[in-house]
What does this fold into?
Amino acid sequence: MTLRTGGAILADALIAQGADTVTCVPGESFLPFLDAAWDRRDRLKVLAFRHEGGAAYAAEAHGKLTGRPGVCFVGRGPGAAHAAVGVHTAFQDSTPMVLLVGQVDRPNRGREAFQEVELRQMFQPLAKRVEEINDAARLPEAVARAFAAALGGRPGPVVLILPEDVLAETTQVADVQRLALAFAHPGPCRMEALAEMLGRAQRPLAIVGGGGWSAEAASLFTAFAEAWTLPVAAAFRRQDIVCNDSAAYVGELGFSMAPSLGQRVRDADLILAVGTRLGEIDTANYTLLRSPNPDQSLIHVFPEAEELGRVFRPALAITAAMLPFARAATRLAPPAEKPWSAWSAAARAEHLENRKPNPCPGTLDMGLVMGQLAERLPADAIICTGAGNYTGWPQRFHRFRSFPTQLAPANGSMGYGLPAALAAKALHPEKTVIAFAGDGCFLMTAQEMATAKLHQLAPVVIVIDNGMYGTIRMHQEANHPGRALATDLANPDFAAMARSFGAWAETVERTEDFAPALDKALAAGTLALLHLKLDPEAITTRTTLSAIRDKATSKG
Ligand SMILES: Cc1ncc(C[n+]2csc(CCOP(=O)(O)OP(=O)(O)O)c2C)c(N)n1
Ligand SMILES: [Mg+2]
It folds into this structure.
């Protein structure tokens, strides 16, 4: 055993747990770590961002893409405060993540030293686990524990707090090898009960969502659904679990849900919920399924027993991770007669109907734009979004065909798209990566265009500019018609701004100009940005701002 600094022990511990990338904004509190990473730069890539929010989002997206914890390092109070949004996202999205936070040195703890915050308290409700490490010799153990906690049961974020002098001190300690995690397997009796309940159903519907999926689990579950002719809806922003071309796929729940699908959920006599918590957005504020006693018979499959029965009382609860559950499900023999076949076919037909765009006001028709995009994107293109009404366009019209291809914050956090796209490009430079952003959303993390330039990452950003915080404006017109406040935006020239960061960029105002511009963007070889000017009337994929205002006015 050699004498190593805490920083070197930490870097080796991360490598031992399988990490190969750390996103960060550097802080003076973790210089010994950066110095150790310099020696290990062939095995541990350190990507500097321009804001800790961007760095944390990127680590979260890395977790979504790989199923392994994305690692982000930030310094003390200010860095931690900025990074908190990424931790919240990982928590609500059930994404494995490890946030490392520098802390003031041990002799000064408790004095409110420079940038000192009681980080354990600050992150307690945001993370699955928070641990402060006060001895360099405990680092390998703590990092192994953090990875196990981030991945185990319902995945999520873990925060490790690292006093500066712990990273500077030297000691001898052995590394801890990567742990083979034990995941919950479904019991045979529960699987038999599932088959029996499904066999008795008239109008069954599966809902898939949550974290902990893999490409294998996703395709096995799809095979099970197809064998049983079971219609499957995706939870909010979990549209890539079941291939959208599968006859089993019937659309997504959440803000861009087709009204017909909401009705199907209400009309179902059996809901098989797999991996999803059935959150507020998935259930349209707990109306599609009522809490605590849903009208439908509920089979709830979740990787952690604590969630089962917490909000909805299931008729059958199954504690299982996604892969063991999907494997077990494919072993169930489907009945010869499926009385629900017509119900499933009707749900699929409604979904296909919903994919047809309505006419869109203005010179740029986003429905047609999405069609042109579809013709040009390979099946493994990764689609990133933040939050805002503009996400309705990809959510309703993009066909997700493989897992994982959707990087989208189920916690509805703005600014996620570009940092997520950078994480995707860092992992898969050969893949097409598109980041959609609203004009509001984009400027929350637009400075990460400099990160794209620095690390030569080349996603295509599509900014959908309607000159407003459209989502909030929509709610204002629906609730307080004609009294818009704080929702107008003064925007920069987005294309000029992007060019100043070294990007290729163009503004598109007419439908017919989109396809040629996209072709140039896809061929740019650098970060590319398409600035789409959308008529503010085109407030959702289904209705106009005036229609919402008029309806509210006539009611009031
Ligand atoms: C970090 C964060 N801040 C505020 C909000 C509330 N919010 C939700 S959507 C939205 C407006 C989004 O504006 P834009 O990106 O322009 O999209 P649009 O709705 O206009 O399509 C706001 C402010 C949020 N979800 N996340
Ligand atoms: Mg907007």
In short: The mean pLDDT is 98. The pocket of thiamine diphosphate (ligand 1) is lined by residues 387-390, 412-414, 438-441, 466, 468-472 (CB under 6 Å). The chain has 21 helices and 20 strands. Residues 478 and 552 are 5 Å apart (CA to CA).
